[in-house]
Every structure is written in structure tokens, then in C-alpha cells.
Amino acid sequence: MQIYKVGGAVRDRLLGRPVSDVDWLVVGATVEQMQALGYRPVGADFPVFIHPKTGEEYALARTERKSGRGYGGFTFHASPEVTLEQDLIRRDLTINAMAEDEHGSLCDPYHGKTDLDKRILRHVSPAFAEDPLRVLRVARFAARYAPLGFRVAEETLELMRQISDSGELQALTAERSWKEIERALMEDQPQVFIQVLRDCAALKQLMPELDTLLDSDQRTLAVLEQAALHQQPLHVRWACLTHDLGGAIKAINQRFKAPRECQELALLVGECHGYCQQDYTLSASKLLELLQKFDVYRRPQRFEDYIAACEMIARGRQQLQEQGYPQGAYLRAAAQEAKAVDVKSLVERGLTGQALGEALRSERLAALERFTQA
């Protein structure tokens, strides 16, 4: 039995990046031997075990064979006869197909270290094309390592185009696709993820609405880049990505089963981002309508997220004439004026139900009229 550290932990150590999760590979062992040593089996698809003391995952070396469509269409075979090289060749990229033995010596049968030094994302073998999820994974790695100068090898990009043209991307579940999209959006350069998907014709399959928009207007990529530069959370980045897609936003939300927070903000930003660029000229009634739409009285953070998304849109479109974003301060001040209306005094006057709602609206409108005229 031999145990190797494999995959991302090896890659990131060589790049000098922090290593968080460590994957371990066991060569030459059986399920029974692992259990006898106290390892606890998990997972039904292939033999993975939990170390009895560290809690880390250890997988038996295995081979795989394509047996159906999509990410899950594979049959796995694990046995003591499977070699390290046979296990590593089934991995996606050469930089992820390296291992370290117990002495820290590098095992690199597919020249991942060379590609690491050359800053190239290259597939390990033609079997890469059997797994459509790898299109999204490679695009995500391109986004993660773009600051280090990495690029996708042309031959790998060609295989990704073949996958896109094959229709295999349609076999991916919404959950698997979203997991990759979510992780990619939170990388340092998420716009690279979108651009790589576009370069290999995958975006046309996954988000044709966005692909069509980018044919004529590339500013959405700049908006997404600004959202990352300003370290915006996931739901703000998703709203920035989809803000210009109009009526298609709802369909895209549902297609990937985006989390509720992402869906709600994307729809609201898509509908209302234009207001934020003309807020100084908005009438009191329009300002009140905007505040009501965001339910700013009970959900103030959602309004803050809207302002953040609008600022990223303005920055991406190069509409800011100065360092700050005065529109945001203006909208926050308007919200404070509306929220300052004393509900208690209206209740003390005996108003309830519809009458209270109408009086409250009237008072808030009056406050905003004074605000806009100041």
C-alpha cells in the first residue's frame, strides 16, 4: 500500500498558494484493508474513506469508463492493481494530475509541472472530452489563475468546443452547473470564466441570452470585473452578470436554480438599475415607488445590495466622473427620509388597515418631496 497527496494540494504548493483541502490517493489497497486499518467508508459511487484520526478523505486508485451522458455517466473500477499513472490519467488537467509520495517527492507522469511553469491549462488525455462538467471547471480554473498569467491551451479549448457542439452540456444538472458558476463568480477574475465559456461556444449553450448580448456589448464583463475588484458577495455579482438581460433574467435564474437571494436581487437590479443612474432627477413619487419595491423599511440590506450593484454597473460602464458614488449616498439619504416618518403617531390617531397604509404613504411622499426640493 502506498499513499500519495494528489491534485490541488500539490498544484497550489508548487504555485506558492495557500493549501486548504488535501486529497489523498491510496494505491495497492483493498476495501477490506482500509476498513481493517480503521478507515470509514463513505460514498456509494467509488471507494472513498475517512481517516480515523484526521477526518481527511482517502480514495482508492481507480479507473473509469464512459457509460452514459453527462457528469455522472461513468463506471468506476477500483482495485489494488490500478497504478498511480492509471489513476492520474483520468483527471482533467495536467496541473491537477501530479502527486507527492510520503517523502515529498513529486510524481508527474503527464508533465504538469512543465505546464505549471509555462502557465498553461492543458487536458491530460482525450478522455477529457467525455465529461461535460470539465468545460465549466477549466473555465473556472482560468478565472482563478488568470492573475498569474495562465491561459487555456488551444488543443484543450478545441476539445471544449467539441463538447459544446455535442449537446453534452445539456445533460448537466442545474445543481452541478450552478456549483461551478457560483465558485467561478467568486474568483478574482470571474469575467475570464465567462469569456472562456464564450470562446469554446459553451456560453451559447448555457446562457444564450448573455452570449447574444456580448456579441454587441462587452460592458457586462467589465461590470463583473468591477464587482470582483470591489469584493462584492455572490448575489451582487450574479445581479451584475445578468443586469442587462431584461425579461430573460427569470428564465436564467430558474435554469440554474440560483439561490433565492441571487434570484431576487437579479430581478430587481435588472428592472431598476436604470433609476440609480438618474436618481437626482427622479420625482418624489418615483423615489417612493423604488423604496417600496425593495421593501427598504423591513429589508434595508437588499437596498444596499442594489446600490452596490448599481455602482458596479456605473464603474463597468465608466460612467463615474469621480472616485466616489454620490448616487448611492443620495438614495440612502432618501431612504432615511422615508423611514423617519413616524408610524406610531399615525396609529395613535386611530388609523388602521388601509387607512393607515394610505396615510403612511402620503406622509412618506411628502417627506420625499421636501427631500427632492431641498
TrEMBL record:
It catalyses: a tRNA precursor + 2 CTP + ATP = a tRNA with a 3' CCA end + 3 diphosphate; a tRNA with a 3' CCA end + 2 CTP + ATP = a tRNA with a 3' CCACCA end + 3 diphosphate. CTP binds at residues 8, 11, 91, 137, 140. The keyword RNA-binding applies. Residues 4-122 form the Poly A polymerase head domain. Residues 149-212 form the tRNA nucleotidyltransferase/poly(A) polymerase RNA and SrmB- binding domain. ATP binds at residues 8, 11, 91, 137, 140. Mg(2+) binds at residues 21, 23. Keywords: ATP-binding, Magnesium, Metal-binding, Nucleotide-binding, Nucleotidyltransferase, RNA repair, RNA-binding, Transferase, tRNA processing. It comes from the Bacteria. Belongs to the tRNA nucleotidyltransferase/poly(A) polymerase family. Bacterial CCA-adding enzyme type 2 subfamily. This is CCA-adding enzyme. It comes from Pseudomonas urmiensis. The gene is cca.
